[in-house]
Design brief:
By secondary structure, the chain is α/β, with parallel strands linked by helices. The protein is built from 8 helices and 11 strands. The radius of gyration is 16 Å and the shape is globular. One of its GO terms (molecular function) is glyoxalase III activity.
């Protein structure tokens, strides 16, 4: 089967509007469900992070109240334990050749707002992947990484493209609230992306050509499934 690149934030905190540091990282459900769906379909998934640093799981995402109960939290922990050797030694973004992959998948958590949104190597990978028509699939806060994709003439590579992302409503009600330093949805819209939104906390996926985006953690499986459909040549979600 095919090789898929999963880019994960290596950040462990987000600087808030008031200057305080908010512990963060990747959201467990998003990485686990994205990885599991792609692997069960027979694909190979390779992890990459800025600098090849080990990514940090957002501990809030493993709290039973957030994960969906004690059993679900324990199941997420077990799955992450099986991935520990790979997550301990991910590829560095600088060493990634997009030509070796058919898709670039980017789970969220607030971590991408700290590093992937501003990482020039992330931008290089995304621009090259987009130019080659590779599937690009960020979800929840993962679309923050798209902000790094600046072309040689200084334009935003995804201007005019339809996408979805964790909404302002979701951020204010169940994310980091009023102290959020910036809203990913607003930043993408300001760059020229066409931002769509579904009902809060419900699975919602948008496909615009090779760009597939999911709105929130609830969209993790559906986003990965849309990637599989696109790789199978299906033009519809």
């Amino acid at each position: 089967m095919s090789n898929i690149l999963m880019v994960v934030s290596a950040a462990d905190s987000l600087t808030m509007k008031d200057g305080s540091e908010h512990p963060t990282g990747f959201w467990a459900e998003e990485l686990v469900e994205g990885h599991r769906t792609l692997m069960e379909a027979g694909h190979t998934v390779t992890f990459a992070t800025p600098g090849g640093r080990r990514p940090t799981v957002d501990q809030v995402s493993l709290d039973p109240s957030q994960a969906g109960g004690e059993d679900r939290a324990a199941e997420l922990r077990r799955y992450l334990d099986t991935l520990a050797p790979e997550l301990e030694h991910p590829l560095a973004l600088a060493d990634v050749d997009p030509a070796g992959y058919v898709a670039v998948v980017i789970p969220g958590g607030h971590g991408p707002m700290t590093d992937l949104a501003f990482d020039p190597e992330m931008g290089r990978i995304l621009v090259a992947a987009n130019d080659a028509g590779l599937i690009i699939a960020p979800y929840c806060h993962g679309p923050a990484a798209l902000l790094s994709a600046v072309t040689g003439d200084g334009s935003f590579a995804f201007a005019g493209r339809r996408l979805t992302v964790f909404t302002n409503e979701e951020e204010l009600a169940g994310g980091t609230g009023e102290n959020t330093p910036w809203m990913v949805a607003d930043a993408l819209a300001e760059k020229g992306a066409v931002v769509d939104a579904g009902p809060a906390w419900s699975s919602f996926v948008v496909r615009d050509g090779n760009l597939i985006t999911g709105q929130n953690p609830q969209s993790s499986v559906a986003t990965a499934a849309a990637v599989l459909s696109a790789l199978d040549g299906d033009d519809e979600l």
